[in-house]
Amino acid sequence: MPDFKVADSEFDRQASILEILVKTIDVSSLQDALAPTLVAGAALPLVPAGGKNTMAAAAIVLLAAHFEEYVRQQVEEYAKSVIVEYAFLKSEFKDKLVDTYWRSGSGKLSRIKPKGFPGWAGLAEPVLHALIDYPIGTNMLSFQAKLVSEHENNMRFDTMAELCGRVGITKLGELMHKSKPLRDALNTPSKDQFNITLQRRVSEFYELRNGIVHSISQNAGVGSTVFNQWAVFFRHLTTAFSGALDDAFQKFNKEIEKAKHDAAASAVAG
What we know:
By secondary structure, the protein is mainly α. It has ten helices and two strands; from the N terminus they run H-E-E-H-H-H-H-H-H-H-H-H. A hairpin with a 2-residue loop joins strand 1 (38-39) and strand 2. Helix 3 packs antiparallel against helix 4. The model has no long low-confidence stretch (mean pLDDT 91).
């Protein structure tokens, strides 16, 4: 059975680190320049003008990176548990999984550029072997869950839903709507407005993140309050996502148990 709490705990740990770093810079900026605070005998450096905003902006970018890694890890965890039951998957699901795996793997290969890069073969070889052993071959042990979550986009809600769809999870929004803390964080939208509200909220974050990455001047409006608000929101979002995956897998597991029961009954009857 997959354990979605591991990635949840890791995301919470990373978010806590960023919160502490942002707070540290905020508090450090309050010290008296004429009487600096001593730490282990050394004067605590003075935070220059704009330093607080720079730290908060950097934390926004890192929060996005941790969130994207979190979603990939959860999808990979789900995929690993799905592939274990490969023999009992419906043909339509198998075909879709093979298509996803092949497209993701070949896409990753196409982004490896040999020209001017001596180490290209080392990156390409394991991916190439993975595609040859599975799905061309039938060696399930060669299945690489990381290929299922391969993508190049910001982790907006549509991307989250698309990655989940690769492993058979549908109606992600409905599953996440069950989370009251997330609904509250979105100002309790009605069920029919939940998806679009969540989509807009996550996109709002990525507009901020992309603005910081592509323009240093965007740092001016980003402070600790802005970062802390987003950190709280993403804790609610990741917890709701974890719950959604758990619910989806419970449903998947029931379908697999039924398939096993039917197969056993058919073997006895035959």
